[in-house]
Amino acid sequence: MLRIFLLQGGILGIGGGLTGAAFGYIGLSTWMRLTSTADGSSLFTLELSAPLFGWTLALATITGLVAAVVPAVRASRLDPVVAING
């Protein structure tokens, strides 16, 4: 039970991190295009770097795992039959 909860927390963290990174990239790219000056230069300079997105993905995955620890520990203390029957 412990592994299942932690695995699900990790999967949700990775999925949420990838989704958030994609929306962030799209949002920042759109923002930079929409806020250009009359001569075409960018009004705001935003750096879209791969390490930034990598750290964000790692942080989201770790957050998902940490959030899954308490339910995983509680579920591991239960009898599997009782946990499945609810």
Descriptive labels:
86 residues, mainly alpha, 78% helix, rod-shaped
Order of secondary-structure elements = HHH
Mean pLDDT: 83
Low-confidence spans: pLDDT under 50, at least 5 residues?
Answer: none
**DSSP, total strands:** 0
Estimate nothing, just give the exact number of structural domains: 1
C-alpha Rg, in Å? 20 Å
The percentage of residues in β strands lies in: under 5%
Rough outline: rod-shaped
Helix content: over 70%
Folded structure, characterized:
There is one protein chain. The chain has 86 residues and is an all-alpha fold. It has one domain (2-85). Helix content is 78%, strand content 0%. It contains 3 helices and no strands. The protein has helices at residues 2-34, 50-77, 80-85. It is rod-shaped and about 70 Å long.
Can you describe this structure in just a few lines?
The protein has 86 residues and is mainly alpha-helical. It has helices at 2-34, 50-77, 80-85. The longest helix has 33 residues, at 2-34.
Task: Show the helix and strand layout.
Blueprint (H helix, E strand, L loop, with lengths): L1 H33 L15 H28 L2 H6 L1
Helix pairs in contact: 1-2
